[in-house]
Design brief:
This protein is mainly alpha-helical. It has two domains: about 10-75, Arc Repressor Mutant, subunit A (Orthogonal Bundle); about 80-225, GntR ligand-binding domain-like (Four Helix Bundle (Hemerythrin (Met), subunit A)). It has helices at about 10-25, 35-45, 50-60, 80-105, 105-125, 130-145, 150-170, 175-190, 195-205, 210-220, 235-245; strands spanning about 35, 65, 70-75. Strands 1-3-2 form a three-stranded antiparallel β-sheet. Helix 1 packs across helix 3 (about 50-60), helix 2 crosses helix 3 (about 50-60) and helix 6 (about 130-145) runs antiparallel to helix 7. The mean pLDDT is about 85. Zinc ion (ZN) binds next to helix 6 and helix 8.
Length: about 250
């Protein structure tokens, strides 16, 4: 298939989008951080048009919040909404694990085993950034092994949205060891072709329960959350959709 020709501005906007997206996922640009058009244009040596295009495209995927008079910020969510996102995340990841236990092909099972071994190796290095990355690879291998394009895509989209927050919990002391044990349970169930056990193990791994929940809440800097009483971009979007649905004839 021939790629449509891009204008110079489109290419610059796409490059900038990827750079900003990577920084948001990596947590170097934290939720709530202001994204100033002029400053970004200067920093990346581009005009303001591609900057504006990049920010608009990030806003469409929910990673950036653009408001009249306040400009663009890295999207933040309120604490209740963040907890809901993790709840949905746990169900989606559990579903992926269930499907993987039923459908994973031999090469996908091997890949799961490999990514798990890699995580165990990385754990010895005591490098949280590397650990975070290796953990991500295991989860993504599982989405792929679900052999469900739509569920895998939805899981990945939500995972990317909670990613800036998920880092806070990965970096908790003790969390890395727990992660390895929990992944082992998921892997064993998938390899044993036990969908129910795989789903439960994965849901429990992603779900924030008990001590995990309070530790997680304590680990998030307050400025990374939408303050109580203020609506996040996601909440405003939901309200708009519901309003439009009610106005429809
Ligand atoms: Zn994990």
């Amino acid at each position: 298939m021939r790629q449509p020709r891009r204008t110079g501005s489109e290419t610059r906007a796409a490059d900038l989008r990827h750079t900003l997206e990577a920084a948001i996922f990596a947590g170097t640009l934290r939720p709530g951080t202001r994204l100033d058009e002029v400053e970004l244009a200067e920093r990346f040596g581009v005009s303001r048009t591609p900057v504006r295009e990049a920010l608009q495209s990030l806003a469409a995927s929910g990673l950036v919040d653009i408001r009249a008079r306040q400009g663009a910020h890295v999207a933040s969510v309120s604490l209740p909404m963040l907890l809901e996102m993790f709840q949905v995340m746990a169900e989606l990841e559990g579903l992926c694990a269930n499907l993987a236990a039923r459908r994973a092909r031999p090469e996908q099972r091997r890949k799961l085993e490999e990514t798990h071994r890699h995580l165990v190796d990385v754990d010895k290095e005591n490098d949280p950034v590397k650990f975070y990355e290796a953990n991500r690879q295991f989860h993504e291998a599982l989405y792929e092994a679900s052999n469900s394009e739509f569920i895998a895509e939805q899981t990945l989209l939500l995972r990317n949205r909670v990613s800036p927050y998920r880092r806070y919990i990965t970096f908790q002391p003790g969390r890395m060891i727990a992660t390895i044990e929990e992944h082992e349970a998921v892997l064993a169930a998938v390899l044993a072709a036990d969908p129910v056990a795989a789903q439960r193990a994965m849901r429990d791994h992603v779900n924030l329960l008990g001590d995990n929940l309070t530790d997680f809440i304590a680990s998030i800097p307050p400025e990374a959350l939408t303050p109580p009483g203020e609506r996040s971009a996601a909440a405003r979007r939901t309200a708009r959709i519901l309003e439009a649905a009610n106005e429809a004839p």
